[in-house]
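Hi there, hope your week has been kind to you so far. It would help a lot if you went through both lines with me. No rush at all, and the record is pasted right below:

***
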Amino acid sequence: MRWLLTCCLILTLVACGSGDDDSEPDTDPTPTAVAPTSTAMTLASPPAAIAASPASAASPSAVETGQRGGIAPDSTAGSSEPTPTRRPVTVVTTPRPIAKTPTPRVTFTQPTETPTVADDGFTIVVDESFDDPAATMFFTGESDFGVIAAIDNGLYTLAVPESAWQNIVAIDAGDLGNAAILIEAGIQGDGAVGVVGRSVTNSDNTWTFYVCWLATDGRAGCHVSLASEWIELFTVEAGTVQVLEVNELFLSVVGDELAFDINDIEIGVINDASSVAGTWGVFAESFSGTSVAWYDQITIATLAE
């Protein structure tokens, strides 16, 4: 079922062609470079010295970040919280090798004033290629924890200081339940890049959300933040995933089933009912030094159960 959803989304997006997005900002908190020989994209140099684009003021709901949690190897977050009831996770521990050359870039639907509804049930609600910084749906500027979000040459970048993490969620996309997010992204430095789903602010100002990620060392997995306490859903060990310069991360949550793929390889599938709906976006974390996560394309779609 999940593979069918993934294929349908990618086929639908390819068929529709690429485009720009028109909206406003929202938020939350290296690989060994593999030189691509295809047309995916090239970074002239690490965008570490990023000056923030003309900063737009973020609303309190725009920047979702915290001092607790994160996926750093020494993180102890989540140890005091009960683990939610879920069925055994399916994890691919020995995936087939990933091609060193990134596959041709996926193209996305040209945004319109009303969401695009595809024949297969996908409704595209966010389609960001960052060609127009003034029309972005994602926060730019500096967050309370020193993370600098900027748009430079068609890339959305998050420069994250050591031991910090940041979630950035799309503004005005609404609370989505059954949905999926597909990104083309990379990470420079010692850290992780990822996606966020069903993020909500609780009455005590803590956060609940799903986050799935890819780390520089080839680790990958998903966590749930329950009232700002992080609990591991599933992970694969260092070296399992070959990190490319351009990586496709795909997260879908339909009903209670969460599924995560990287570069068309299944990382894990699990049932979890911690969050039923919320905002969706991207994630970045730095384990040491300053890490820079970058995103070339972000597409979010709702889908039928």
In short: The longest helix spans residues 2-16. Residues 191 and 256 are 29 Å apart (CA to CA). The mean pLDDT is 73.
